[in-house]
Write a structure and sequence with these properties.
The protein is an alpha/beta fold and 219 residues long. It has seven helices and six strands, in the order βββαβαβαβαααα. The chain has a single domain, classed as 2-Layer Sandwich (Nucleotidyltransferase, domain 5), CATH 3.30.420.10. The protein has helices at residues 37-47, 66-91, 116-136, 149-154, 163-171, 184-190, 202-218, and strands at residues 2-9, 16-21, 24-29, 52-54, 98-105, 143-147. Helix 3 links the parallel strand 5 (98-105) and strand 6 (143-147). The two termini are 14 Å apart.
Length: 219
């Protein structure tokens, strides 16, 4: 039976999915609008690539009192999850002739930049998407995994890699992945000039690629 591998790197600002089927990669991205003109242009260019399903987020939580924020955030995360699922469905065939192997990157509890509220918000948003995936994508015969960030980074060579190092492994194709070099998104990334910080949504889209690599090795 043919397989479809789906790697998910879920974040509130730029959730990303990488899909591998029939020897080809496709990416799904649903980010918020970047702030600078340069990064806005980058988002526009990525959205025009033929192997990327892409749509900017539109919903913004209004400036309301503390006691009212929860319901608005839940609405935002629900809309976000639904849109990402809709984009993902464009990529995945409806046929039952495929075994789906899907994995999420787990939460990075040890990051020194992580705050408790951020983890709670991310867990809420991710759970809503996981539920949609379980109800609409993953069947009883399919595979559903959650890998730790360290496990995923190990696929790139080192469990302690930062996003900038993962970017280098990706654009240099250090894994010698012949299918990657057929990708328009990969070709686009090879032409980027990147400093210490990898721009959004490129960073999360690359993370999703390495989730797929974990699936290849571990399932």
């Amino acid at each position: 039976m043919k397989e479809i591998l789906i790697g998910v790197d879920y974040s509130i600002n730029s959730p990303a999915v990488c899909v591998y089927k029939n020897g080809n990669y496709t990416w799904v991205s649903h980010p918020t609008l970047n702030k600078t003109k340069k990064d806005k242009n980058l988002q526009k260019e990525i959205g025009e690539l033929s192997d990327v399903q892409y749509e900017l987020q539109e919903y913004v939580v209004p400036d309301v009192a503390y006691e009212d924020k929860d319901i608005f955030k839940m609405q935002k995360y629900d809309i976000q999850a639904g849109k990402l699922l809709q984009l993902l469905k464009f990529v995945i065939p409806s046929s039952d002739d495929f075994l789906i192997k899907l994995a999420f990157e787990g939460y990075s509890y040890g990051s020194r930049f992580t705050k408790t509220n951020n983890i709670i918000e991310l867990a809420t948003a991710t759970t809503l998407f996981k539920k949609l995936v379980m109800n609409n994508i993953v069947g009883p015969e399919d595979i559903f995994k959650v890998y730790s960030p360290k496990t995923i980074k190990m696929q790139a060579g080192n469990g302690n890699m930062k996003k900038r190092e993962l970017f280098d492994v990706f654009v240099e194709n250090q894994l010698k992945d012949p299918d990657l070099e057929k990708s328009f998104f990969w070709e686009y990334c090879t032409g980027l000039t990147v400093g210490k910080k990898v721009p959004t949504p490129v960073d999360d889209m690359i993370d999703a690629y390495f989730v797929v690599q974990a699936l290849k090795v571990k399932t």
